[in-house]
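Please predict the structure of the following assembly.
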Amino acid sequence: MIENVKPKVLVVMGSDSDFTVVKECLKTLKQFDIEFTAEVCSAHRTPEEASALSRNAESNGYELIIAAAGKAAHLPGVLAAFTALPVIGLPIKSSTLDGMDSLLSIVQMPPGIPVATVAIDGALNAALLAIQILSVKHEFLRAGMKQYKENMKKKVNQKNENLKDLIEKEI
Amino acid sequence: MIENVKPKVLVVMGSDSDFTVVKECLKTLKQFDIEFTAEVCSAHRTPEEASALSRNAESNGYELIIAAAGKAAHLPGVLAAFTALPVIGLPIKSSTLDGMDSLLSIVQMPPGIPVATVAIDGALNAALLAIQILSVKHEFLRAGMKQYKENMKKKVNQKNENLKDLIEKEI
Amino acid sequence: MIENVKPKVLVVMGSDSDFTVVKECLKTLKQFDIEFTAEVCSAHRTPEEASALSRNAESNGYELIIAAAGKAAHLPGVLAAFTALPVIGLPIKSSTLDGMDSLLSIVQMPPGIPVATVAIDGALNAALLAIQILSVKHEFLRAGMKQYKENMKKKVNQKNENLKDLIEKEI
Amino acid sequence: MIENVKPKVLVVMGSDSDFTVVKECLKTLKQFDIEFTAEVCSAHRTPEEASALSRNAESNGYELIIAAAGKAAHLPGVLAAFTALPVIGLPIKSSTLDGMDSLLSIVQMPPGIPVATVAIDGALNAALLAIQILSVKHEFLRAGMKQYKENMKKKVNQKNENLKDLIEKEI
Amino acid sequence: MIENVKPKVLVVMGSDSDFTVVKECLKTLKQFDIEFTAEVCSAHRTPEEASALSRNAESNGYELIIAAAGKAAHLPGVLAAFTALPVIGLPIKSSTLDGMDSLLSIVQMPPGIPVATVAIDGALNAALLAIQILSVKHEFLRAGMKQYKENMKKKVNQKNENLKDLIEKEI
Amino acid sequence: MIENVKPKVLVVMGSDSDFTVVKECLKTLKQFDIEFTAEVCSAHRTPEEASALSRNAESNGYELIIAAAGKAAHLPGVLAAFTALPVIGLPIKSSTLDGMDSLLSIVQMPPGIPVATVAIDGALNAALLAIQILSVKHEFLRAGMKQYKENMKKKVNQKNENLKDLIEKEI
Amino acid sequence: MIENVKPKVLVVMGSDSDFTVVKECLKTLKQFDIEFTAEVCSAHRTPEEASALSRNAESNGYELIIAAAGKAAHLPGVLAAFTALPVIGLPIKSSTLDGMDSLLSIVQMPPGIPVATVAIDGALNAALLAIQILSVKHEFLRAGMKQYKENMKKKVNQKNENLKDLIEKEI
Amino acid sequence: MIENVKPKVLVVMGSDSDFTVVKECLKTLKQFDIEFTAEVCSAHRTPEEASALSRNAESNGYELIIAAAGKAAHLPGVLAAFTALPVIGLPIKSSTLDGMDSLLSIVQMPPGIPVATVAIDGALNAALLAIQILSVKHEFLRAGMKQYKENMKKKVNQKNENLKDLIEKEI
């Protein structure tokens, strides 16, 4: 019975400073009852660990990898090289170039090795994309995602209500 | 027996001119024995059709959507709004701005509605990402993907051999 | 008698956080005695509401739509898809890429569905453009706009006077 | 009876080389039965003529101005300075920077003087935006625009049909 | 005797908020004993005043114009259209796009009407360029410029000395 | 009698491949009866020659330097370092980055050493700016420049006439 | 006697299509009598081979690595991760984004793992930088480099001569 | 005995304000027991000193030059013009354009004169690249670099441990 086993995701960040952004991703995975392991691991400073993480991810029961990195953000692409699992790339904005370097280094992958890229600092979307991908197999996640979308609608509608008050006061 | 049913992918392109690029995506899906339907459908010119395609995709048996679009490329995001299926966005380079507009319009999705973005004109990678995502459920695709990666290695190695000859001749 | 009826504008923002910028737009519409409704409505989180807002705008008496959005700012284009009313797009600068993503996602609309785009965070200009467009029909707005332009000149001239003092003091 | 008078549009291009792009705009205006005058007039080489064109546009019966220009594309903004009519800016791609200079010079107008900007080389959209703006007053244009949108849908649907054949042949 | 008459420069800024940057330009002109008039004048809000300023600049005894502006910075180009005097353009960084819009709007002038562009926020260089241009005629400015360059060298050398101390302390 | 001596301009290009663009600059200088010397000289490959050219320019009777260069275009700035003459920088578009590298390398000069920058590949404007600068001293050039501006107007007006025919035929 | 052993360089390109650009690099290495091995090896398609090449480079007698790659160009950074040898990165311009993606993916390496980056498509400079680096140890290369620089000067001077003829004919 | 002599590096910064960034470079050189001289010297304000520094660097016993500069950052290229030593360029982010101007001015060097460019504000990497280059000759630096890489791994692993705690607390 597949659904007895929780889906497992491997989350790798290139630097511990990425945690501030990645936190929202982890919280969302947890909220959807997805098991995850998070690692600080660098494509450049710990390349052996990076390739090992990726090479063993499938046999360790992970179904998907999320990789966050900034600047010349090679981590998602490097992980993708060593696995047939889907890899989500999360570009982190660092102190120069406003995140453009991270984005291009992740999204412009050459033919053969795709990385599913989300927005710069888009940690929530990295988690939601993971959930959507895993929901191809795990029905409870599909259901959860639909519920999540319903809740978003309610929140937008609530904000819309609040706006009316705000306008009355401020305009 | 899940594997008796072929995985089905919906491929939508914003303009028929995108077909030149998208073709490689379709060929790759076919090569992996994935069933697909391809549609020309515009987020702006045929918005009702676009939302209907997406809203009904799951019940029509599709497990994933690939959307290709250029310029202010809203199609992937708009489709993602109407479904809980994973959506892959393929930015198409058009006649100005070298594809940067297509890329940013697709990848910079706001929190809540992710689009899995691949490189500009990265049609092959859109297909391979689809395969990797579907392989979370369909084991034969995981196996196929591994084989594909092996073949890529062989091709690179073959090209490496050819290079030696080339160097002998030209350097 | 057309001029008995106040012109009505629909203002839609993709997120309630856009209100800080959009406020100046609303104030200016009010100052010109234009009736408006402001809504928080997302092309991605509440797509049904977005299309309904736009589809019904004309029959609800709106003559023009202003849509503000950031990042992959699809809202203006999506609204434009569902109406024959003119749509003004206001790109909002968010936390990465300095507004370039919002701008390109709004202005680079494909052939067939234009969005009248103003500057990034150009909330005042969104309002003034609305007034200029509505003044094609509503003569009092044309007159108001001319007065507004005269006042701007006076303000610039006043600032020019102040500059002379400033220079005397500081240079 | 307002509808007896054809709506009149002034189309100004900064250089005669822009005509190749602007042509599609003029054809579309004609197709919608809008009267237009087209002028080559430069904000920099013939500034007196430019300001005169704009200053007199309203009294000459024009209801809207379309201005096309490339590089440091000041023409739309300069025309907007001299009139209360709505001004549509059409950025033309020239030989360097892929149209980014034209776009930013037109869209980033300072507070007070908006220009309704369309996509780089978006001549068709400049015309359609003009039609949508004029339709605020001229009902036959609103009707025409709705028809146009219906036709676009049909064309997309037709292209969708053709795609099926194409796929059968080429994939 | 030409040198009896002080050279006169017209400095125009598009907004009084530019004064913070332009101040350094004015101070430098004063330090070189150049007479200047500074005006707040907008190409878009006070276009008549702008063209008058430029058209009369030569007969009013100005030998050169410096124009500072931000965003779609048309002021330098517009002034250049109405005069045969050399015009220096100073792009001002505003709140979005990091000054790229100001720079391109000023430097990418079309053939026929050049603007001598300096760096974004380069107020000092605008003054120094003015001095170098005027020194073609006014010998005392050539001499002053040479002295200024000598002083810069001394300052750099002094900073170099200070660096040695700094390194001793901090490294 | 100052006007007996022809004004002299030094034109330096970083590579002989720049000549294709620079040619129009030289033709325009000749047309205005300005004496010029043109040199291929590289800031990087022949730095001694470059500094010598610049250091001796004033004593060799040159009143102004025009420097054209592409990529990391240091030549204008390097020449400006060695002279108190005004230096005009002409960025040349080369095979990558669409001229953005050339432009930024020339225009973003640090405080103290300005370069009067014109548009990418703006060879005509480099010449016209030189003429405007020299006309501060040489009255015949001021007169010539005014005549040139008049001719431009006539040409634009002529093109405007031609447009009417074109429209009759093609629209 | 160190100079008895030829310096050895490992040249790796991410795709055989890079050979067109890299060729000039190889020819230059050969011309300076540097022994080299050239490999097609991809950080993504053949990651094991890439890391092995780099890990064994030092023990195989290589003193330096040159790596050429396009798009999300991870190869130079990935090789740098596995070796203490200096790595030169050569960004290759591919079909979109004009080489900006390749450049940023190579040059923006995170702290700890530098890549010595040269210009986009700068194959000659990759070779010359290698020679300058190796000349820290190999004296004959220092001498060769000085000779090369002298020859460049002569070529520039020769081109300068040719320019005079060209000007006589064409201006 | 070569290893008795400490390797010597010349570090030049274009402005004393660069010291804040460059400090980390100097500390790292010191930590590796490399002798260095640091100079404030400007390619534009003190060009004679700059060329002298570079021209004499080899005979003064330097084996490599590191040059840091911002904006139109010519210093690394100018130094490279006067020496056959390898030159490392360190682009400094200044107040506009987010460091893109500095980067392009340094990395896009024309054929013949390479500069080994590192990331914007990448002071640590400038030092490490210097060490890797010098280690071609100086064996103790190769050993030191390997040790440094080992330490980096340990630090990343330590951070990875810390992450587990952080996640326990915050997620």
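The radius of gyration of chain C is 18 Å. The longest strand of chain C covers residues 64-70.
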